[in-house]
Amino acid sequence: MQAAFEAVGPFDHLVVTAGPELGSWRSFMDPDMSGVRSYLEGKFLGTWACARHAAPHLKAGGSMTFLTGGTGARAKLGLAAVTPTFAAVESLSQSLALELAPVRVNKIRPGFIDTDFWDVLPAAKVEEIRARVRANFPARELGTAADVGHAAVFLMTNPYVKGTVLEVSGGELLVDWIF
Ligand SMILES: NC(=O)c1ccc[n+]([C@@H]2O[C@H](COP(=O)([O-])OP(=O)(O)OC[C@H]3O[C@@H](n4cnc5c(N)ncnc54)[C@H](OP(=O)(O)O)[C@@H]3O)[C@@H](O)[C@H]2O)c1
Description:
Order of helices and strands: HEHEHEHHE
Strand order of the largest sheet: 1-2-3-4
CATH superfamily: NAD(P)-binding Rossmann-like Domain
CATH architecture: 3-Layer(aba) Sandwich
Number of domains: 1
Radius of gyration: 17 Å
Largest sheet: 4 strands, parallel
Shape: globular
Structural class: alpha/beta
CATH class: Alpha Beta
CATH topology: Rossmann fold
Distance between the termini: 37 Å
Bound molecules: NADP nicotinamide-adenine-dinucleotide phosphate
């Protein structure tokens, strides 16, 4: 990571979207904890490492934006590794907004965005999720990568938004959990 940012040199804005597959760990009751360790390693420490090694190269007025997810704010059954990991990334962004000031550090909390993220599930399950989102979310539709990109550009360009979370979820947290 250090070598990558040294190769890039000075730059303006960091957006960290990388994250392990949703199903890359197993269940809370799995006696083997390597799954949760690797999930935390990939998402939390991956975000940490990006921020740590990007920081020396950010230009004045620069920003960092991290991606989390709705489960970071409202626990979902079966996501015992993902929920606290997203919450930790959100908390990290607040710490770094102080630690790296005046660099602006924020996070985007997406809802159901139509990307490869869901490919880990069987196609029929994804279709079921789409149908439930359309029926229940105020947006009546899944989000797109462009919706999240729009939010990222806002966070990059607004000079007075620091240490906050921008929810791009179609209203996910306004409705009862649907699964
Ligand atoms: N899409 C959604 O509905 C949704 C919902 C909740 C939260 N999110 C959040 O949004 C983020 C981005 O979502 P997405 O839809 O773009 O997910 P995605 O389509 O699954 O993309 C994740 C990306 O992370 C990369 N990656 C994984 N581990 C990596 C590593 N160790 N180093 C570098 N890259 C790595 C993957 O690369 P490879 O393909 O090469 O492995 C992949 O390109 C997620 O991390 C999650 O926090 C998304």
